[in-house]
C-alpha cells in the first residue's frame, strides 16, 4: 500500500472509498472465504472502479493487511479493575476477534512478508496485540497487584490462542481462553 495515500486525505472521498472497500472486503471474506475473493469482486461490491483498488492496494493481500491494521481494537472490553477478570476479558475478546469471519485471513495477510517491503506486519501486529494487554497490566500495577509480565501474557495467552485458531484446533473456546489466564504463573490477586 502506498503509505502516502492513506494519510493524504483522512476524510472526504478518500475515507468514504476506504470504508466502502473495507466493508465490502470484510463481507465477501465472511461470505466466501479469503481464497475466493478478488479485487474486482470487492470493487463491484463497494461500488468503485477496480482500478481504484489496484492503484491503492495493488493486491488482495495488501488490502486485507490494510483492513487488519485499521480494524483496530474497537469493541475491546473495558477494564473492570480486577486483574484476573481483565485478563480473561482480553483473552476472550482476542479469541472472538480471531474467530470472527475472516479473522485469521486478515491476520495472515497482515503478517505476510510480501505485502509491502516497507511494512513490517509482524512487528505491527505484535505491537497492537501487546497494546491490548498493556493497560490491564499497568492498571494492576497501579492498584498494587503483581501482574505477570507482558512477555508471559504473550507467551501463555496470546500465542496459544493464535496457534489454536490458525490450526483450527477443537476446543478453542471461551472456557479455553479463560483457562489460559488461570494457568499464568504467580498471583492474579493481591494478598489480603
* Secondary-structure element order, N to C: HHHHHHHHHH
Radius of gyration: 19 Å
Biggest sheet overview: none
The total of helices stands at 10
Identify the overall geometry: elongated
User: How far is the N terminus from the C terminus?
Assistant: 53 Å
On the 0 to 100 scale, the average pLDDT is 84
| pLDDT < 50 runs, ≥5 residues | 1-9
Q: Would you tell me the structural class of the helices and strands?
A: mainly alpha
Per DSSP E runs of 2 or more residues, the count of β-strands stands at: 0
Strand percentage: under 5%
How helix-rich are the residues, as a percent range? 55-70%
Summarize the structure in words.
- By secondary structure, this protein is mostly helical.
- The chain is built from ten helices and no strands.
- The chain is elongated and about 55 Å long.
Question: Any descriptors?
Answer:
192 residues; mainly alpha; 10 helices; elongated
Summary?
This protein has helices at 3-8, 12-32, 39-46, 50-56, 60-71, 83-99, 103-111, 121-143, 150-166, 174-182. The protein is 67% helix and 0% strand.
Topology overview:
Elements: H1 3-8, H2 12-32, H3 39-46, H4 50-56, H5 60-71, H6 83-99, H7 103-111, H8 121-143, H9 150-166, H10 174-182
Helix pairs in contact: 2-3, 3-4, 5-7, 6-8, 6-9, 6-10, 8-9
Amino acid at each position: 500500500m502506498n503509505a502516502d495515500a492513506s494519510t493524504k486525505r483522512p476524510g472526504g472521498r478518500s475515507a468514504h472509498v476506504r470504508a466502502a472497500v473495507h466493508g465490502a472486503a470484510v463481507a465477501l471474506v465472511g461470505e466466501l472465504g479469503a481464497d475466493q475473493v478478488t479485487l474486482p469482486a470487492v470493487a463491484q461490491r463497494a461500488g468503485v472502479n477496480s482500478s481504484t483498488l489496484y492503484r491503492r492496494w495493488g493486491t488482495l493481500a495488501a488490502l486485507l493487511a490494510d483492513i487488519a491494521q485499521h480494524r483496530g481494537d474497537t469493541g475491546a472490553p473495558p477494564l473492570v479493575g480486577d486483574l484476573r477478570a481483565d485478563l480473561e476479558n482480553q483473552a476472550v475478546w482476542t479469541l472472538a476477534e480471531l474467530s470472527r469471519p475472516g479473522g485469521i485471513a486478515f491476520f495472515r495477510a497482515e503478517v505476510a512478508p510480501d505485502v509491502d517491503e516497507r511494512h513490517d506486519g509482524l512487528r505491527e501486529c505484535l505491537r497492537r496485540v501487546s497494546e491490548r494487554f498493556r493497560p490491564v497490566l499497568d492498571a494492576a500495577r497501579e492498584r498494587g497487584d503483581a501482574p505477570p509480565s507482558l512477555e508471559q501474557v504473550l507467551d501463555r495467552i496470546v500465542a496459544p490462542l493464535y496457534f489454536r485458531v490458525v490450526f483450527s484446533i477443537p476446543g478453542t473456546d471461551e472456557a479455553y481462553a479463560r483457562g489460559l489466564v488461570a494457568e499464568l504463573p504467580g498471583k492474579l490477586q493481591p494478598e489480603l
